[in-house]
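cron nightly-structures :: item 1 of 1
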Amino acid sequence: MFLLSAFSLISAVVNVSTGGKAWSLIVVAGAWMFWLNIVKKPLIENSAANRLSQLLLSSCATLMVIDLIYGSGFMHLVLPILMFSMLIILGAIFFLNFRKQRRNLMPLYYMVGGAGLTVLGAFIGILRFNWATIVLAGISAFYLAISIIWFRAPLLTELKKRFHVG
């Protein structure tokens, strides 16, 4: 972590001294992504689904930083595509083998929550409302409906375990 922080600080100093766009923020985002996905090992919920969703969310954050600095506008299309692709993968893992994958409940619902925030951002006007956002909204709504209709009792049991609710 010390080396990543040192490289980030050095890049910030070089960026400030040379001027121009804040490319050092991309270095910081890349270092954070490397630390989060490669170096850091979670003690709880260290499953493949959790690691994949963590990789995707940190990739989306890094893409947002790149787009905000260079303003190319690709984030409005790429972000929802990445999210609905990951939702399809996590949903397939989760729903095809539900009994074994109950422990992967939270990564799927974190992704559904992130999808909801992305769709909300499109409704508010932060993101563009395009075909990828519509597909993302449809897939996340489908997963919520399927989980409520078919897996209601097991999901409530699993949520009670996780959140210690009555």
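cron nightly-structures :: done
The two ends are 40 Å apart (CA to CA).
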